[in-house]
Amino acid sequence: MLKPVGDRLLVKIIGGEYEKFGVTYTMERNNFSEASIEQFGNGVDVIGLGVKKNDIILVGKHVGLEFKIKDLSYKLIEGKDILAIMN
Questions:
Q1: Which neighbouring-strand residues pair with 74?
Q2: Taking 90 as the threshold, does the pLDDT of residue 9 lie above it?
């Protein structure tokens, strides 16, 4: 697995469809992606961001560097690219 450097985070894109209040939303149509935090670079202020490994977050659709490993989509992003933490 890749280990990000500096202030970067490695996240796994887990988007797809979800249902809320009887309405089905497709993440690909929105300007954001749902992702799981996999790894932190050594410069990430984890406490300041309020995130930990395996947290589910929303990230902008067009931020960071997106790539695939074994048919799974990943992104290298910066902490400022996190839009929200899903609880």
A1: 12, 67
A2: yes
